[in-house]
């Protein structure tokens, strides 16, 4: 497999962010996130650090603004085999996406997505084409534990609406900024995509996803 294919799942991770019509499921209703927060993740491929992903969330719960920036570089035989840059800005009203702008550059190829809420729908313009998505919409907003109720999510990198399911996988110990803490693991599944998420006291603390080449991508605080 070509090195560039190691990161195929990033089209759904980019944050890795998405569209959701919020409906209850068998998972207990998670609480809303804290109004402000910051996440600075190291990104590892098979345990080797290859980049970073940073989220900044500001708001009062009723209105929230989010900025996401990521940079990955994978070297192979002294060559830069994979380059990834992602930026996204989002505005939320409660658990519903109000506005989104994102730009992703993968090995020189650029993808841009714009989304705006109008009345009872979100209008999306992206590489997958234009779409009008009814109802309350959410992205792959891992920082907000309410995505654990999701049945559909919008990929902020491609503009695609993806059906998703989430299952709780139990409590585990994970490393969080040098501390060993208890966190609940959830598995988010979508077509050709599997992402494991860990939350400690309602706060997102880790992410892990397999790649098609049999490698493992992981986010650690």
What does this entry look like structurally?
- The chain has 221 residues and is mainly beta.
- It is globular and about 50 Å long.
- Strand 2 (48-59) and strand 3 form a beta hairpin.
- It is built from one helix and 15 strands.
- Strands 8-7-6-5-4-3-2-1-15-14-13-12-11 form a 13-stranded antiparallel sheet, with no helix packed on it. It has a two-stranded antiparallel sheet with strand order 9-10.
- It has one helix at residues 10-13; strands at residues 37-45, 48-59, 63-76, 79-93, 96-106, 109-118, 121-126, 129-134, 152-154, 161-163, 165-176, 179-190, 193-200, 203-210, 216-220.
Note the topology.
Blueprint: H1 10-13, E1 37-45, E2 48-59, E3 63-76, E4 79-93, E5 96-106, E6 109-118, E7 121-126, E8 129-134, E9 152-154, E10 161-163, E11 165-176, E12 179-190, E13 193-200, E14 203-210, E15 216-220
Antiparallel strand pairs: 1-2, 1-15, 2-3, 3-4, 4-5, 5-6, 6-7, 7-8, 9-10, 11-12, 12-13, 13-14, 14-15
List keywords for this structure.
1 helix; single chain; 15 strands; mainly beta; 221 residues; two-stranded antiparallel sheet
Output mean pLDDT. 83
Assembly annotation: single chain
Largest sheet: 13 strands, antiparallel
- Spatial order of the strands in the main sheet? 8-7-6-5-4-3-2-1-15-14-13-12-11
Query: Structural class, judged by helices and strands?
Result: mainly beta
Distance between the amino and carboxyl termini: 30 Å
Beta-strand percentage? over 45%
What's the total number of strands? 15
- Give the topology string: H per helix, E per strand: HEEEEEEEEEEEEEEE
Gross morphology is globular
> Compute the gyration radius: what is it?
16 Å
Query: Unreliable runs, pLDDT <50, ≥5 residues?
Result: 1-29
Number of helices: 1
The percent of residues in helical segments reads: under 10%
